[in-house]
Amino acid sequence: MGRRRKKAQTFPNGILDSKAEVTSVKRALDAYSNPAANLGVGANNLVQTACYVMQRFTWDYYTLNILFRDNWIAKAIIEKPANEMIKNGFEIHSELDPDKVTKIMQVWTQTKSRDRFLECLNWSRLYGGCLLIPMIENQEDMSKPLDYDTIMPDSYKGCFTVDRWCGVSPSLEVVTDISDPEFGQPEYYIVTSAPLNKAIKIHHSRVIKMIGRKLPYWEEIAESYWGASELEHVYTELKKRDDTSANISFLIFLANIRVFSMEGLGQAITLGDQDALNRVYQTMQSMNRLMCNTGTFAIDKDDSFTTQQYSFTGINDVYESFMLDISGAAEIPVDKLFGRSPTGFNSGEETLQNYYDTIQEKQETYVRGPLEKLIRIITMSALGKIPDDLEIVFNPVRRPSNMEKADLAQKMAQPIYDGYQAGIYGKGTVLRELKQQTPVTNLFSNITDEMIEQADKEDEEEKQNKEQEEAELENAANEAVNGSNENEAEEEKNT
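The structure assignment produced for this chain is given below.
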């Protein structure tokens, strides 16, 4: 016998002793109810039943690889922002001689450190994290902290990358020194990679760590102190777009549907006349073989043949709406990501400027720290010392066109010209101001210090000549006034 359902007992105060009945009453007495729509009467609406499920897509290494290798949109989402961050390079600002700065940049280029750095940045965005390991000669014990004083001249030989899924195991020990920039992060990394041929324990000061999208603390712990893949939060939108694209391509085959009306077909199917059905199948097969644009189509006089054309109206709007969703999720303008703008949409100057502002923010968040650490190692190897004032300044992310440069130069030079015409600025000041605008406009770079000094001398000579002329004019005016006064006095005397 099945268990009997206990009947709810109603007490004098109206309280029910059944939890199920109480829940039912709560639903029935919801603040909003619509019996016709079945809302608030014991059943939730479709929107309320939706929920979000934690998937941790970053753990799906196999799918990440498939998307990067096979899906051009996923590949662009990973590579385009990374390329934008470092494509225009950077400058080293210091009191060092220009020759020494050039030597540092030569090591950066010759050791292909830029390529390895970009590679590490890409893999960190794809897998959620990656290590860039500098290769320094005469550093046998990698488990000890890196002492920059032990880096010998020309000992830096480049670096190699190891992503988080390629044999990297963060240690359970964490950095406890609050003065260390890596405070709270793993103190060691156990690296097992093909180039090393063995497992090596490496101190965190000897690796350059890059992570993907930053996560809250407990999620970071769940990811073993790594970040999330940049594809994790766009995967759903990307799948919607791919599903839509595949269905649109399938609809092309249904663009023209041929309809053959045959007398007695329904009766033959109803009666189950196998011979009649076989003749129908044979007829259809023969018609399909003979059908072409220039062929002859023969049917019975009582039969009919028509073509139904499928309409694609509105499908393009649906497809482009998914483009916008992917663009928003990836934080990349549509024309940058897809190479074109949706119909009726244009990224515009403001959208592009917002995108480049985002890239600059990512430079400061994800690139500056790792890059400064690597440049310090390269500088120690190239020069034997690290200047205290060593600073990295990123070049502008966006390079203006020639027309934009000319327009910008005109707008910036016009106030200077107006000041010169009004006599506020001299030639030397004008040349100096124009030369200072060179990093922005990429113009006036041929103005030398000698030209500025010569202009200053000419300004000083013109100033002295002007003062001399003004003094001569003042003296002449005074003499004229004195002469006039003397004449007037003599005339009065004679009178």
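Interim note for the steering committee: The longest helix spans residues 449-494. The radius of gyration is 40 Å.
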